[in-house]
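Project standup — Tuesday

K.O.: blocked on the structure for the chain from last sprint. Re-posting the sequence here as requested.
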Amino acid sequence: MKKQETKSKIVQAAWDLFYRQGYENTTIDDIVEASGTSKGSFYHYFEGKDSLPASLSYLFDEKYEELEKTMDPSLSPIDKLVYMNQELFLMIENTVSVDILGRLLASQLTSSSDRSLLDAGRTYYKLLRRITLEGQQQGLFREGFTTNDITKAYAMFERALMYDWCLSSGSYSLCQYSQQLLPAFLNTFC
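H.V.: unblocked you, prediction finished:
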């Protein structure tokens, strides 16, 4: 448990500093100091600052763990998916700069080893599969789509919106735009 807490402290401090100071203006020493850890701990978890963009998915999963605990269980599976999306995109708008999100997306294209956004073991995918399965059991989704089909499409939809938001330099509200499009997208499976 202590190891996970140390990594979490480093990731939280790094992303807070990236948001406030910018990625380029943040040093490893800044991150170590803000996290209250050591350089040894930093290098135990990360090869260097350039390996941190992929850790954003770790931060997203912490948000999903929080949402899973606080989500109203009486919501329909569709409403749960919309709620998760809105809460994450609101977090992104308020705490993650366009530059940093862009670095995460770019790191997923250029890294051959760390494809954290596609890691099926993430809390994100586990929660999506659970909610999608619940929707299928309730007959909300049309037959012909598997749990994996719907989960994969939903994740691609979210990544596409984040990618476009970065390409547009954050010129619109990610949260509001998704709020308009997500119900129509989900309707294609109903």
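K.O.: great, moving the ticket to review. The mean pLDDT is 89. The chain has two domains: 1-51, 52-187.
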